[in-house]
Amino acid sequence: MAQKPKKKSASAKRIVAVRPEPKQFSVADLVRELNSFNVDNYWDLGRFLVDKVMPVARKQGMFEDQVLKMVSSHPGIKFPFSMLKQCQQYYSYYPDAKKRPLPEVFYFDLATKVDESKRRDHYEKMAVDYHWTISDLRKKIHDDDVARRIDERTKYGFDLRDRNVWTFETPDPRFGKPNYKGRIPGQIIANVLYYYSKPGDYIVDPFAGSGTVGDIIDTLPHFQDRKYKLYDTNPIDERVARNNILLTGIPEQSNSVDYIFLDPPTEFTQRDTSTDFEVSVDAAKADFALKFKGMIRECGRILKSGGRVSIVIESAFAISEFIDFPYEITQLFKELGFKQIGKVYLPRRSGELMTRGTQGISEMRGIRMLSSDCRELLTFQKQ
Ligand SMILES: C[S@@+](CC[C@H](N)C(=O)[O-])C[C@H]1O[C@@H](n2cnc3c(N)ncnc32)[C@H](O)[C@@H]1O
């Protein structure tokens, strides 16, 4: 992006003055017209789009973005969609940019980087009062955005994520029991409940372990209107009911649950490769399918229609063959009438990697095996 839009030359002024008003769209004509603008003539380009092109587009029943996309995907156009959009935005917000006290580039940045008009006015006043350079303005907008994102992330009482890779170096000590084997960092569950459950939901955790799901709902005001039920073969406290999902399923009524969180033990997928020489990969897969099909059927039975289930799972070597368990489980869910609605990557924390040990390159029957350091959190919806 150019630092300072150049002053319009006399010849550019003449070109703008004689530009014909499009009556209806020929994309090729429009592209020719647009290409005659200088690449840094943002304001004039914006004015042409807003005053001349958009009224015709609206008459033809087209949306503004639709026109910009159509034009920008035409061969030979020299402006990408994002640039056309920025010029349109610039002129819409500042049709009087040339009469305002700051250089035009300030208004271009304000129009394209700041959504609320009050904030734009505030920055303009500060820039005038304190004689800001364009770098001062950009730094201030950037710093304020970072501060707002941090505020947003912590306003619910936990570290809210907005991307699909969730790593939390230290498990939040408020949730779960510190030395419980397989305890998941509470921040993962807080995020999962934020994205996949809703106020008033009835939530079930059949592998409750150290009670992390219960702790989140009991502790964080944001989730206080969710109700929950926890199960495990080894209940850790009175909130957890004893149950073996493989023997008795999930003891809940049919069509009664809104959301299920499944964090099965690693033994459900990973086998001791040293003792499994005689078991075929097919047998390992069949064993996996048997266990998980039963579990998924149970989820389908107890979930209300539209209810959701998330599962934490990772790929592994069974015997000497790689099995993509996240893929296999996705297939099973789909076979049993679920639709996938989410996928998040959960890389292991460096602390966890240390305890898992560095085993060097493992090799079995001539196959080099890469161990997994990243779990996946898959979410499905009952149709
Ligand atoms: C990975 S841990 C869950 C950890 C839990 N999410 C937490 O944050 O503490 C798996 C749990 O499943 C339980 N479990 C193992 N087999 C089970 C079964 N057949 N039915 C129910 N729970 C089982 C284990 O006792 C263990 O607590």
Radius of gyration over alpha carbons?
A: 29 Å
Regions with little confidence, pLDDT below 50 for 5+ residues: 1-18, 273-277
Secondary-structure-derived class: alpha/beta
Number of domains in the coordinates? 2
Q: Which sheet architecture does the biggest sheet show?
A: 7 strands, mixed
Name the shape in a single word: elongated
Instruction: Count up the helices.
Output: 14
Describe what this molecule looks like in 3D.
The protein is of the alpha/beta class and 383 residues long. It has 2 domains: 10-154, no CATH class; 186-382, Vaccinia Virus protein VP39 (Rossmann fold, 3-Layer(aba) Sandwich), CATH 3.40.50. The chain has helices at 10-18, 27-35, 42-59, 64-72, 81-93, 104-113, 117-129, 134-154, 186-196, 212-219, 245-248, 281-302, 325-335, 350-356; strands spanning 202-205, 227-232, 240-242, 257-262, 303-313, 316-318, 321-323, 338-347, 362-364, 367-369, 374-382. The protein has a 7-stranded mixed beta sheet, sandwiched between helices. A two-stranded antiparallel sheet has the order 6-7. Strands 9-10 form a two-stranded antiparallel sheet. Strand 6 and strand 7 form a beta hairpin. The two termini are 47 Å apart. 31% of the residues are buried. The structure holds S-adenosylmethionine (SAM).
